[in-house]
């Protein structure tokens, strides 16, 4: 079950869109993404921006489950988002394993005109994330991963 939590007045800005906590399991990610979709529908963001945010968060949250908690007991994932006039700021936190080298991977687009047998099987996730977000930052502190993303906000 995905738990939508209310934050204290000190933590909540007038622009808070959502704050979710859930166990790092595939079906919990699916439920969280449904809750995010519902929350985004209540905003003035354009449908394209809402779709970009959903796609971005689907990639990030599934990566947390698949990679950060690989070989570990599922832990908690926290995701919150706030909107300003120009952007949506997203923070994703978990206590899974760190990113390799504790850094965001530097990725380059694959040559999509290469022969099919030369195309990579995966590795498009970080490219997608870095394409949709105007800024991406990663921190690891006291056993916690913190990924912050800024996505341009375009009102409807």
Describe the structure.
With 156 residues, the chain is α+β, with helices and mostly antiparallel strands. Helices cover 29% and strands 27% of the residues. It contains three helices and six strands. It has helices at 26-41, 47-68, 125-132; strands at residues 3-4, 16-23, 76-83, 87-94, 135-141, 144-152. Strands 1-2-3-4-6-5 form a six-stranded antiparallel sheet, covered by helices on one side. β5 and β6 (144-152) form a beta hairpin. α1 runs antiparallel to α2 (47-68) and α2 (47-68) packs antiparallel against α3 (125-132). The chain is globular. 23% of the residues are buried.
- Helix/strand order: EEHHEEHEE
Oligomeric form of this entry?
single chain
Structural class: alpha+beta
| Overall pLDDT | 87
Radius of gyration: 16 Å
Strand order across the largest sheet: 1-2-3-4-6-5
Number of helices: 3
Q: What's the total count of β strands?
A: 6
Brief characterization of the structure:
The chain has about 160 residues and is α+β, with helices and mostly antiparallel strands. The protein has three helices and six strands; from the N terminus they run E-E-H-H-E-E-H-E-E.
Topology:
Elements lengths: L2 E2 L11 E8 L2 H16 L5 H22 L7 E8 L3 E8 L30 H8 L2 E7 L2 E9 L4
Antiparallel strand pairs: 1-2, 2-3, 3-4, 4-6, 5-6
Helix pairs in contact: 1-2, 2-3
Question: What brief labels describe this structure?
Answer:
156 residues; six-stranded antiparallel beta sheet; disordered N terminus; 27% strand; globular; alpha+beta
